[in-house]
Amino acid sequence: MKYLVNAAEMRRADNFTTERIGISAMTLMERAALAAQASVESYCRRVEGGSEPEGSPVPKRTILIMAGTGNNGGDGLALARLLSGADFCVEVWIVGDGTRATEPWTRQREILEYYPVNFCTKPERTEYTILVDALFGIGLSRDISGVWQDAVELFNRLQGWKIALDIPSGVNSDTGRIMGSSVMADETVAFGYCKRGEVLYPGCLAAGKVTVADIGIPEAAFETEMPEMYALDEKPEALLPKRCPWGNKGTFGKVLLAAGSPGMAGAAVLAARAAYRAGAGMVRVVTPAENRSIIQTAVPEALVSTREELASYFGWADVIAIGPGLGKDHGAGRMLEQVLTESSLPLLIDGDGLNLAAESPDIRRILAEQGRTGRSIVLTPHVGELARLLGKAVPEIQERLADYGRDLAMELQTVVAAKDARTFICKPGEPVCVNLSGNSGLATAGSGDVLAGIVAGLMAQGMDACRAACVGVYFHGCMGNKAAWQHGEHGCMAGDLV
Fold this sequence. Notes:
CATH topology of the largest domain: UDP-N-acetylmuramoyl-L-alanine:D-glutamate ligase
Largest sheet: 12 strands, mixed
Strand content: 15-25%
Radius of gyration: 27 Å
Distance between the termini: 24 Å
Oligomer: single chain
Strand order of the largest sheet: 8-1-10-19-18-17-16-15-14-11-12-13
Number of strands: 19
Structural class: alpha/beta
CATH superfamily of the largest domain: Ribokinase
CATH class of the largest domain: Alpha Beta
Number of domains: 2
Helix content: 25-40%
CATH architecture of the largest domain: 3-Layer(aba) Sandwich
Shape: elongated
């Protein structure tokens, strides 16, 4: 996994490194500049490799560094020095009052007097080989305006490959919000740790490719307060539960899936197939009788029972999943009450199960009681369902999705996977896991049913509820990436994920 830090967490780690460990701010600045230089040179190798006949001279490359007067600008000045001796014609465009600069910035500016760097009050070209954004770092707290906004807009108009140091200027490092205007980078070199704003929308669109560079700030610099957000980045296959070589279909877990309604058998089919593909040994679908032939044809591996038989299989199952395509009629509500009051099995609630909970104070009360008693429960609401559960407007939920996901998880003492373009998995007292896998192809009917099946399949195999939600959402996104590679994002269908 990788940590995603906010500005306060990063400052705390910076201060610990300089004050307690004893690595100076100038040393960290030097390491940051070296990391940025590596990314610049990597880009040059990619675009210039093999383009010149052997033995021919390499043309002088032009680079513009837009530098503010804080430590982020100091990183840019250090980079200018390093590149000035590496076949670059370097221009430094200082934006702001240098007399009010930080001490490390001032020292870097003094050092540059001895190097072949050209200082300018505005860019002298309309096109450069490379443009470096070192205007603002993680400390930006208000919208960009005035000369700084003019500088950002001019920087964006200039032609050339653009790289941002630590975070694109204008992106809020905590939320990803655009603070009035922002640099649109092709690549961002994040120093030490990835910043939340670089992976959350819309900031991730401004960051381009994000490269995290180790500059010598260890995890120990967070002391006992580790970052409150992280993302999985392992190979997905490595996250699946270990399988016993001598196991059998009972060993690998039994999913009791309450899904589907008249005319909505597809949700049950997708969830059942996904549970099997995630590794569950057996899946029993509880659904209206008219769906039996459809499900048995589409998923011949599944066992099929009617709604009236639901409670009789509580002793058979290892996990219950309820909601995909369930509908909201009286029978569906009765089923949800049964799984809450007549069973203590690990439980996943999706789709219409969440809508029923939002509409019924009694169901919501029982759900909260079950959560407080320690029952393993995972809720998988998309933005609209979360808005209904919390009585909020959808735009308000979208703006602070992680916060509202945590609020619901705390209220009900459950795991909440708050789903959107970035999905946040929240559990009381635990760091938030944000999913960075996937693409717009996942925004298609049935995609959520597949996710419900994956998570239920992992829970059936004994995986902890929160871990199953984190791995399931990540896996779902990775499969979305594979499906998009085959069909394009426009052409993805939920069945492709399975």
